[in-house]
UniProtKB/TrEMBL annotation:
The organism's place on the tree of life at top rank: Bacteria
This protein's name: SIR2-like domain-containing protein
Lineage: Bacteria, Bacillati, Actinomycetota, Actinomycetes, Propionibacteriales
Length: 456
């Protein structure tokens, strides 16, 4: 039997590869988001909007015959929110006479309570807590009420208003935060204006996602260490593609003293991926918690650095939601092409904890398998379906099972698919103990031997 060379291995990691570090899976993240935004006192409307979206998806699943007691995964929720936020720009929008009444009522509500906005503005402008009897805070509170009333009723401000305002403001307030709060204060008191609640909700989800995926103990990822310590020939880089936002691979590589190249460090200036000679190439196909999204700028304006100086940023640059997978903005199209290139130079793809829900990734895998009969796939997932099945619930995993039943390689008719229903830590411990070549021999030889015994 022809066993692929070491340099013919590429890894693909999904959420299941990070679950053993204590990170929640997709449906678990939905529950955590609901809990967090239910306590979001400063933006209750966003919490109401999330509850509305999740409840509508569950109700629709029930009408379709699916389980009505199962939360939707967070990417499905994010996709729905994204569509709702930009629904007026959808091509079908001219054909929709009216939207769900509850949706319209939700958007018509004030974005935030005016008093809450006032407190935030006072704190931003003066650095003082409102109600603390500080002169600047008291002065600003009165001026803000005056200004808000003038905006709402279309009245002119007193001639002394600007001068008094400048005197009360701190020397260096946060300008961006100030502009945002002023816009929200105006919107909160203008009747009949549509609230950008779903845009705010998307921002909140991404912000909270960073908190949810933040690990307090780097050692929780230690089970991934064999991944960056594979015994490969010198000069042959290992390609690891991941759909996860966390920094698990980077953390274990740093702890193990293994250099990793992500290819994006110089992307902001050149617009191109640039990999070093590091032994591990890491492709973060959907972004990373330490990548920072730029604020709005001209398409031709110079880019800032993509990688934040901190391991976490408040504005992480992520591909979030099922409908955003091919995103023109940022390095994501180039990363997908880099994955395709690495995949097509490999003879073995090892998939850890990926549920095959990304259509673009699945197309890459399907095309790679179809392109050469010598290519083999190992899927490591303790929850992988046992039977191929048919019908409406069939997905790419079941397609793989059906394909694996008939796909053969070589004159001996060797199988090309090996499903290992075990955890990522178990598999990586095996590959550490026996080495990648021996593990591949065991995986495919065992399948061949088993089928021979069944034929006898």
């Amino acid at each position: 039997m022809r066993i692929p060379n070491h340099h013919g291995i590429t890894f693909l990691l999904g959420a299941g590869a990070s679950a053993e570090a204590g990170l929640p899976m997709s449906r678990g993240i939905t529950q955590l988001m609901i809990d967090r935004l239910s306590d979001e006192r400063w933006d209750r409307q966003a919490g109401y909007a999330l509850n509305f979206v999740v409840s509508a998806i569950i109700a629709d699943d029930g009408r379709s015959g699916h389980r009505p007691d199962e939360l939707p995964d967070i990417e499905r929720v994010a996709s729905a929110i994204e569509l709702l936020a930009g629904r007026s720009d959808l091509e079908i929008s001219p054909f929709v006479a009216s939207w769900e009444p509850a949706l319209t009522a939700l958007e018509a509500a004030p974005p935030r309570e005016p008093m809450t906005l006032e407190r935030n503005l006072v704190r931003t402008l003066t650095g003082q807590r409102p109600g603390s009897h500080a002169p600047a805070a008291t002065e600003i509170s009165g001026l803000l009420r005056q200004w808000s009333d003038a905006q709402t009723r279309r009245r002119s401000l007193p001639s002394s208003w600007s001068a008094n305002f400048r005197k009360a403001v701190a020397p260096q307030p946060d300008g961006r935060e100030l502009v945002k709060l002023l816009k929200q204060l105006i919107a909160s008191q203008l009747p009949g204006q549509r609230s950008p609640v779903f845009f705010r909700l998307l921002e909140l989800l991404i912000t909270h996602l960073g908190d949810i995926l933040d690990i307090d103990d780097d050692s929780k990822f230690d089970y991934l260490t064999p991944l960056v310590q594979l015994d490969l020939p010198p000069g042959v880089p290992l390609t690891i593609a991941t759909l996860n936002y966390d920094l698990g691979v980077e953390l274990v590589a740093r702890r193990a003293g293994v250099e990793v190249s992500r290819g994006i460090e110089g992307w902001a200036s050149s617009g191109l991926l640039n990999f070093t000679d590091a032994p591990v190439r890491l492709l973060k196909l959907h972004g990373s918690l330490d990548w920072e999204r730029e604020r709005r700028r001209s398409a031709l304006a110079p880019r800032q650095s993509l990688v934040s100086d901190d391991s976490r940023t408040d504005r992480p640059f992520l591909v979030f939601g099922q409908r955003e997978k091919l995103r023109a903005e940022g390095p994501f199209l180039q990363l997908l092409e880099a994955f395709r290139t690495a995949l097509y130079s490999a003879e073995t793809l090892i998939v850890l904890g990926y549920a095959f829900r990304d259509g673009h990734i699945n197309e890459c895998v399907a095309g790679w398998l179809a392109g050469d009969a010598r290519r083999r796939l190992i899927v490591v997932d303790p929850y992988f379906p046992e039977f191929s099945g048919w019908g409406a619930d069939a997905d790419f995993r079941r397609d793989l099972l059906r394909w694996g039943e008939v796909a053969t390689a070589g004159e001996q008719g060797m199988r090309r698919l090996d499903i290992r229903r075990e955890s990522a830590s178990q598999f990586l411990a095996d590959i550490r103990d026996v080495g990648p070549r021996a593990l591949l021999e065991t995986a495919f030889a065992a399948r061949e031997s088993e089928e021979g015994e069944q034929r006898e």
